[in-house]
Amino acid sequence: MNPEKAQRAASFFPLAPLLLLCAVIAASFIASSGPIQWRDNGMFLFDASQGQYFSQSLAAVEHPFYKFFTSIFFQLFGQQALSLLNSMLLLPLAWIIHRLATSVGATSRQAVLAALVSVLAHCVFWISTKADVYLLHAMFVLLAYWLQFSTEQRLGELKKLLLIGLLSGLGAATHQLTFVVLLPLYIQLLSHHRLRTLMILPGFIVGFATALPAIAHDLQGSMSLLEIGRRYFTGASAIATEINREGSLLRFDLMWYEKKTVGLLLLSLLGPQLFGLLIFPRDKRQRLLWSAAFLNLLFAASYNVTDRFAFFVPGVAIFSILGVIRLQALLARIRPGNALLTLSALTSPIAILFVHALYSNGLLRLPAHIEALPFRDDIHYFMTPYLPDRSAERFVHAYQASVPEGALLIADPEPMGALRSAQALGMLRGRKLAMCSEPARIHDYLDSAGAYLARLSYCTLIAEQYRLESWTPGYALHIK
User: Is 411 helix (H, G, I), strand (E, B) or coil?
Assistant: First the structure.
C-alpha cells in the first residue's frame, strides 16, 4: 500500500466504528416490534397507557421507576413512540459505555468500538426492539461504575458517594438485578471508605423514591419490611399470591435441561466480548468490572426463565469494553489489525443471520416450542432480532377481523401481552379479555358473540371442558 492510501485508510478506520454505530442504532428503529408486542413487552405498553404512575405493590414483576417513566412518556408522546423508546436509549447507552471504557484505560477509538460491539450483541439489540426495562436499568448501573472510576476534580468523595447512591436507588427501583451487578462495587466502596459508605443511603432513598408508595401500600396490608423485600426479590410471600420465582433463582442444576435458553444467552458472547470473558485483566479497575460482569453472567445463566438472556445486558457491555481492549492488544502486530478489530464487531449479526438463512432454507434444524404462537416463528423472534418481527401485530389483526365485538378472548400470558397492548392502541374494541388462570363466565359468551382460545398451552383445563373448533387464530369454544 502506498503512503497516500495508507494515510487515507488510517483516517477512515477511526471513523468507521462511529458510522457503523449510527447505522446500527438506525437499524434498531427499523427492526422494532412496533406498538403491539408479546407477553411482558406488550403489558409494559398497556400499563403505561393506564395513567397510573406509581406501583400499588412492590411485587417481583413490578419496576416502579420504569412504570413512572414510561407512564409519563406515554402521556407525552403516545404508544408508537413508547415502543421505540429502547431504540432511542441506545444512543445514551452507547455514550455511557464510551465514557466507562475511557475511564478504565481504553482509547477513544476502542471506546467507540466497545459501544458498537455492545449494541450489536444479541441481548442488547433484541431488547432495543422491544418495550422492556433492561436498557434503562443498564444505564444506571454502568453510570455508577463510571462515577467510581471518574477522575473529575469537581467530584469530591462525598459527592461521588451520594451520586452512586442515587444511581443505585434508580437502578433498584428499575430492576432487582442492580444488587447483583453492583455487589463488587459496594465491596470495594466498603473496603476503601468503611463507615463513610453510609453516605450512599441519602442518595439511594432519593433514587428509590418511586417505589416508596408501593412499600407504604404493602405496609398498610400487614406486610413487614422483611416480607416486602423478599417478595420484591423473589416473588415469594406468605400473604400475596402471585408468580413466585424463588424456585427459579440460581438453578445451575437445570442449565443443561434448559440448554436452548442458555444457548440464547451465549449468543450475546459472539464477538470481542468473548475475549473480555476469557482473559482476566491485570488492571485493578478492569478486574472490578470483570467481576461484576462475571457475576451477572452466572446469575443470568442460572435464572430459570425463557428470556434469561435479557438479564445479561450490563455484563455484555462490560465484557465488550474489556474484549475490545484485549483484542486490540492481540492484533497490534498485524498490519490489518485495525480493520480486523472493526470487522470483529460484526461477528454477532453475521453469524446469527447466516444460521437463520440456513434454517429458513431448510438446511438446518433448530429447536422450537412444541406449540408456537400463531403467526410467530420462534427462531426468528428469539434468535434473530436484526430482522423485523411484527408477528404480534399480525396476530391481533387476525382476531380483529375474525372475532366479533362482545366476544371473550382467553389467553395465556404470552399472547395476552399482544391483546392488551392492542386494546391500549384502540383495537379489539368491545372484546373481553381473560387469562386462562382467571375465572370467567365462559358459558355466558357461548350463546352470543362466542368465546375463543388463543392456544392450548397453559390452558388445558379450559380446553378439556369444551369442544374445540379450529379458528384463525387459535380455537373457538363450543359446549360439548
Answer: strand
Question: According to the model, what pLDDT value does residue 234 have?
Answer: 79
Round to whole Å and give the CA distance between 174 and 185: 18
CA distances from 125 to 40, 364, 390, 443 (A): 17, 24, 16, 44
Q: Which three cell numbers stand for residue 375?
A: 403467526
- Backbone torsions φ then ψ of 234, nearest 5 degrees: -125, -20
Q: Give yes or no for a cis peptide into 473 (omega within 30° of 0).
A: yes
CA-based nearest residue to 273, from 142, 139, 121: 121
Residue 177 C-alpha cell reads as 438485578
Q: Which residues of 2-20 are buried (b: 16+ CB within 10 A; e: fewer)?
A: eeeeeeeeeeebeebbbeb
Average pLDDT of the residues in 416-443: 92
Please report which residue ranges of 37-195 form alpha helices under DSSP H: 39-49, 64-77, 79-83, 85-103, 108-120, 122-128, 134-149, 157-174, 178-181, 183-193
Give the single-character DSSP code of 480.
-
What are the Cα distances from residue 95, in Å, to 119, 132, 265, 426? 11, 20, 24, 36
DSSP states along 430-467 = T-EEEETTS---HHHHHTTT-EEES-STT-HHHHHHEE
Would you state the cell numbers that stand for residue 443, as one nine-digit string?
358459558
Contact 261, 368 (CB under 8 A): no
Q: Which residue has the cell 440456513?
A: 358
CB 396 within 8 A of CB 465: no
How far is it, in rounded angstroms, from Cα 131 to Cα 153? 38
Report, in this order, helix, strand and coil percent for the chain, each rounded to 5.
Answer: 65, 5, 30
- Residue count of the chain, please give it: 480
Distance in angstroms between the alpha carbons of the first and the last residue of the chain:
80
Per the prediction, the chain carries an average pLDDT of 92
Within 8 A by CB and 6+ apart from 361, the residues are none
Number of Cβ within a 10 Å radius of residue 390: 15
pLDDT digits (tens, 9 = 90+) for 54-85: 999 998 889 999 999 999 999 999 999 999 99
Q: Which three cell numbers stand for residue 98?
A: 464510551
Beta carbons of 269 and 122 less than 8 angstroms apart? no
Q: Compute CA 297 distance to the chain's CA centroid, rounded to the nearest angstrom.
A: 14
The SS3 assignment for 478 reads: strand
Q: What is the pLDDT of residue 332?
A: 86
Q: How large is the C-alpha radius of gyration of the chain? A: 24
Q: How would you classify residue 279: left for phi > 0, otherwise alpha for psi between -120 and 50, otherwise beta? A: beta
Mean pLDDT over residues 170-198, rounded?
96
